[in-house]
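cron nightly-structures :: item 1 of 1
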Amino acid sequence: MTRSILLLLIPFCVAFGAQAQNLDKGKEINTTCAGCHGELGQGGSRGEYPRLAGQGAKYLESQLKAFRARTRINIPMYPYTQERELPDEDIKDIAAYLASIELPTKWPVFKDSDDALTRLTLTERVMIIPRIPGNLANGEVLYQKQCVTCHGKTGMGRGMFPRLVGQYTSYLKRQMEKYVKGERPHDEEAVGGVLNKLKEDDLQDILAYITTLQEQQ
C-alpha cells in the first residue's frame, strides 16, 4: 500500500474509531436504567416510563445531558446523570446500546423445537402500542405537514429528533402537554411552537395516526 493511500485512510479510520462505542459497557450501565425503563429499554407502567429501545443515539445523549444540566427538568433523573455517576463516555455507551435494541411489532412464529424459555424470551421483546381513537385522515395530514421534517415519514426520528413510532401514547401525550404549557422546549427555545397552533383534537388525531405507523416497521 502506498504512502499516499495510507494518508487518505488515516482520517477515515480515526473517524470510524471515534464512532464505535462499547455496547457491553452500555448493557452493564443499563442494569441501573432497567429498574424503570426495563431490561430491553421497553419502558413500562403503560407509559409512565418511556420506551428507550431503538431511540436515536444522538437524541438519547442530548436528553441525558439535558437532565444533567436541568435544561430538561426531571428530578429522579438528575442524580443518575451527574458526571461522577455517568460521565460523557458512559452516556455515549448507554445511548448506543439502547439504540441497538430492536423490539418487533409482530408476534414471533415458534418452531416445534422451541422450549418455554425461548418462547418467553421472544415474546418479551414484542412491543405493540394499542391503536387509539382519532381522525386518522386529519392526523396524517397534520403529521406530514408539521412533524415529518424532524421525525421522518415513518416516525423513526432523525439525528437529534426523537423516534415517535412505538412510543407509549400516554407518554407522548404528556410531553405534548408540556410543550404546549412551555414546560419543555419543542421546536424552539422560547415558549410556543408548532404544537401551540393546533387544537386539542388535532393533537389527538396526530397521536392516533402515529399508532398506525408501527405496522409499517
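cron nightly-structures :: done
The helical segments are 3-19, 23-37, 57-69, 88-100, 116-124, 136-151, 169-181, 200-213.
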